[in-house]
Write a structure and sequence with these properties.
By secondary structure, the chain is of the alpha+beta class. It has five helices and six strands; from the N terminus they run H-H-E-E-H-H-E-E-E-E-H. The protein folds into two domains: 35 residues; 166 residues, no CATH class.
Length: 209
Amino acid sequence: MSSSFTFIIFSGLILAGCSRTTELQNSREEIRTLNSPDVFSDSARIQEVVWHVLDWSQSDSAIVVNPVIETGGVYLFDKNELRKNLDRLRLTGFFANEFIENYNQIILKLEEKLRSQEFDPWLVGDLPPFKFANDADPWCMCQGFSVEQYERVEIVKMDKQSAEGFWRWKQGNSWVDFMFRVSKEHGKWKISYMQGFDYAESIKKDGDN
């Protein structure tokens, strides 16, 4: 066997060994990360903020998500009330800027579509002609719930600055599990997305897929 061939084999073994070592180190690092006190602490804080938001949304201090006024037998959006809603969302400390601005854009787009008559007029006493908050509470994608119906908050993805998960109802419950995301702002976990506030779905005409 030539010395050059021996060198190639030896080099290959070293590289394979290094590669395997790197894989093991990465695996150990993942295990350390997943089992670190910080991860468990973050997980608990994320579940806590989701709970706080759902609890707040059912309270008297929650915003009316469609801030409308009655004019001539129809509902129109009130921008003054929208601004108050945005301020109240900020004051809770539960919501990331991303969530608040997304909500703002939903209402502005719905107002635009009502005024341009892209939607039918929203008659007083009728459900909205759009999907947002139509016959269901966007906070829970339900029509009210009790603690007994709740199963768990399941976090499916998480890093140091963001996480994604699901609110799970108990098996046999009629409500649909919904997805949420959180992000860290100034060291605090805040809601950045909730499925009931999905922009693309919210601005659709009622009945559209």
